[in-house]
Amino acid sequence: MNMQIPYLGYYIFILVAIIVAFLIIKKVTTCLVKSIVLIVLAAVLGYIYWMYLR
Q1: b vs e for 4-43, b when ≥16 Cβ sit within 10 Å of the residue's Cβ?
Q2: Helices within 1-54 (DSSP H only)
Q3: Positive or negative: CA dihedral 23, 20, 7, 4
Q4: What percent of the chain has pLDDT over 90?
Q5: What is the per-residue pLDDT across 8-54, written as a single tens digit (0 to 9) for each?
């Protein structure tokens, strides 16, 4: 039983690292999605201006 106690610390560390990595990836992905939507919207507006309003 005493041999398993040190491994518990490693499991907790790995679990915390996975949670932190998930949260960081979620924040970065949200930012990237917003950037991509903004770029697509700007491209569509540029196309509409170029084709119909010039």
Answers
A1: eeeeeeeeeeeeeeeeeeeeeeeeeeeeeeeeeeeeeeee
A2: 5-48
A3: negative
A4: 24
A5: 778 888 889 999 988 888 888 888 888 899 999 999 999 988 887 76
- Rounded distance between C-alpha atoms, residue 31 and residue 24, angstroms: 11
Token pair, residue 10, equals 């490693």
Quick count: other Cβ atoms within 10 Å of Cβ 51? 8
Read off the pTM. 0.55
